[in-house]
Design brief:
By secondary structure, this protein is an alpha+beta fold. It has four helices and two strands, in the order H-H-H-E-E-H.
Length: about 80
Amino acid sequence: MLAYNLLNWFRQTLLPVDTARAEVSTIRMIIFNVPGNIVGNGRYRHIRLVGNQWLQKTIGFIKAKLKEFIGVKTWINVIQI
């Protein structure tokens, strides 16, 4: 139940309007199942994802919405104090 509620919050709050109405399996396929390689040298490793313009725009949108959400939450905390 918790995973379902978190995914619904993620869809409604952070995703663009055209993607927010997608089913769970579709969101999983286009956002979470992205091919990539683990690369690096020495003890430093990182993941290099396949180039995907749509995913880059969507992640940028999600980052902007998270910054907006965090700013609103901070502002609410300031007002309550």
